[in-house]
Amino acid sequence: MLKGRSIKWKISFSHFLSINFIERQIMHFLQRLSIFFFILLFSVMGSLNAQKNLRIGIAGLTHTHVHWIFQSAKQGGFEIVGIAESNRELAQRYADQYGFSMDLVYPTLKAMLDQTSPEAVTAFNSIYEHLAVVEACAPRGIHVMVEKPLAVSMEHAKKMEALARKHNIHLLTNYETTWYPTVTATYRFVQEDDNLGAITKMVIHDGHAGPKAIGVNKEFLEWLTDPKLNGGGALPDFGCYGANLASWLLKGEKPLSVTAVTQNLQPLVYPKVEDEATVILEYPARQVIIQASWNWPISRKDMEIYGTKGMLIAKDRQQMICQLTSMKQDTIIQASPLQHPYDDPFRYLAAVIHKAINVSPNDLSALPLNMLVVEILDAARKSAQTGKKIVLNK
User: Fold this and answer.
1) Contact residues for 47 (Cβ-Cβ < 8 A; gap 6+)
2) Domain contains 38
3) pLDDT per residue as tens digits for the range 315-361
4) Total domains, the chain
5) What distance in Å separates the CA atoms of residue 26 and residue 20, rounded to the nearest whole number?
6) pLDDT, mean over the chain
7) In sequence order, which residues have a C-beta less than 8 Å from that of residue 67 and are 6 or more positions away?
8) In angstroms, how far is CA 320 from the centroid of its own chain?
9) Best label site of 71, 206, 247, 369, fewest CB within 10 Å?
10) Is residue 63 part of a domain?
């Protein structure tokens, strides 16, 4: 609809019949209509430019979470412009499954960056290789998203952080649980609505029957069970979820101490790394217990939160169970679906890079929060090795 002052037709009948007058009015109308459509065209072009597809490169295919980005690409919002993977047989398997050309695959990360110039790179290789990805991308101004956890150690994490700061790139960490509706709903329930009161305890469970038992491919299993390439076994693989969620819900508060016990319950299957871990985070007014396992008969990613007014269980990605002191029975809550771009890691990445949204230091994917996650994992590893409580520096 055209906006503006309405045209007043206060003229005589003879003027109304005047062809010249009618022509002038038609020309005036067409001029206004042309201006309107030019404004509309520029508006649409600006909108399309703001929503242009992000050019993404993939570093490695050995982490099977890479299926996620291929599946997500079907929904649009970003474009996969290149893949760095030296294992041609592995790359061919993915190419056959998802129908992309092997022309997208380059033998090295440098070759892929040189030839495709992506705006961002997603790392789907071993955790140890995350540092090399940032070393290659940061000086070129290429943003990076790695799969959880951020790094194998604080030594690696600090180098990655320094490079990201120096070259002013986003360095984000992707967790499956970040995109659970129940995770976002839990934060609102606890922090914004203050339904539970002050948090006194959290118990966070993440695990499954083990990578061998669930049938991960050989390329993934090879580095996932290598203490150097993964930084350990079940502790970094699943303990990182609890450290991430607890730190986020507690608004980046650093624990006073970390105590951990790890075991190898399947030594013939996982001879080099732990397959069971329990981590206790001590805070001035609360306690967090993180349970990570490759030995459970079922897969689970859930958390229990206890406060002064009640308790909440985020049972899975959709369902929560709540009981408040003012209630006589449990209430089952279905979490509302997440809205774009907070429902997908790669469209979230695109929105961050295109400055449609800002990343706060305490966001689940943010670098500062994930530096704390690695610090907690480092302390847990040291505690398990020494049998002592590890006090963290403020």
Assistant:
1) none
2) yes
3) 999 999 999 998 878 999 999 999 999 999 999 999 999 999 999 99
4) 2
5) 10
6) 90
7) none
8) 21
9) 71
10) no
